[in-house]
Amino acid sequence: MEWQRTNRRVQIDESQPPKYDTVDEGDDNSMRMRPSQNNVTESQEPFMGVKVRRKASLHREYKGDYIDVPSRPYLMKIMEKQGDTQVLFADNVLKFTGNGKMKRRILLITNFAIYLVDPDTAALKRRIALAAVEKMSLSELSDNFFAIIIPYEYDLLMASTRKSEIVTVLVEATKSDSAQLEVVFSNRFEYNATSDLVKEVQFEEVEGGVKTRILAR
Predict the structure, then answer these.
(1) Checking CA distances to 209, which of 2, 23, 129, 149 falls within 20 to 30 Å?
(2) How many other CB atoms are there within 10 angstroms of residue 11's CB atom?
């Protein structure tokens, strides 16, 4: 297999996985996460000036592959089986399950699909064709959450300190002459946590961060 790595903007050495600083979590799936400082310049994002920007996020550049995919044979094997050779983005993220638990996953975006891989078992947990993605939902605040909406399947709610880059990569990867991936900003949005369970994510700006609640509808 011929390996293709996509270099995006200026490369930055970040060997450590992203860290998520959860301040508060309750029985109602309420949590507060400190703003990250790992974003990109507004001119590099399809955010149309809606997003509230962090002060330290104005000079961020893209790296793309933060986990060195070629050095991980199990990831290469997964991609090879699906016929994928070009990585647009790869990093560790948190995925929220239907029952509200957080699980570590490797998020891998290629020019054909989105992959979620369990880093502990090296197992592919889910593959979503880019063509199946309808839109992305985000808050207007400085949090790490984003939802990928897949109409004919269940949706994905995840958290990443590199959310801005993920959004930009997906918008560019799905762009065509006739359409572009919709990015919706709201401090309250719904997503299908499972095929038969709808949840609402609520965001509130508080002192020291953003308070996030995930509630069953």
Answers:
(1) 149
(2) 12
Per-residue pLDDT band for 94 (boundaries 50, 70, 90) equals very high
Side-chain-facing half-sphere of 193: CA atoms under 13 Å: 19
* pTM for this model (two decimals): 0.76
pLDDT digits over 135-191, tens only? 999 999 999 999 999 999 999 999 999 999 999 999 999 998 778 899 999 999 999
Cα separation, 193 vs 75, in Å, equals 26
Dihedrals φ, ψ of 116, to 5°? Answer: -120, 120
CA–CA separation, 60 vs 137, rounded Å? 22
3-class secondary structure per residue, the chain: CCCEECCCCCCCCCCCCCCCCEEEECCCCEEEECCCCCCCCHHHCCCCCCCCCCHHHCCCCCCCECCCHHHCHHHHHHHHHHCCCEEEEEEEEEEECCCCCEEEEEEEEECCEEEEEECCCCEEEEEEEHHHCCEEEECCCCCCEEEEECCCCCCEEEECCCHHHHHHHHHHHHCCCCCCCEEEECCEEEEEEECCEEEEEEEEEECCEEEEEEEEC
Higher pLDDT, 136 or 15: 136
